[in-house]
Amino acid sequence: MSISSSSTATTLPAKVKARWAPLLLSAGLALCLTAADAQTSEKKTKTKKTKPPAAQARAKPSVKVTHQPSPSEESSAERERRLYRECQGRPNAGACLGYTRKP
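Below the sequence we write its predicted structure tokens.
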């Protein structure tokens, strides 16, 4: 007794394939996007940390920052004199704005 297997696979016509291919692709894409969204929402809920009420009420003290001038820094008067000197005859724009003529 011999069993012969014949390859009689049924194939879909080209018109049916053309109709179902975009539908299947869009369904697969929608499934992937919803799965990814579900994973990110799970991660967000896990990473949220709640502070105890005592820690929330206690605020950090503010820090005042003071400017310490560099020893090589020019004063504002020196800067104005330099800009009036360097900007003579140049257009009144950019760094020279307001420094082309003395008031």
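The mean pLDDT is 77.
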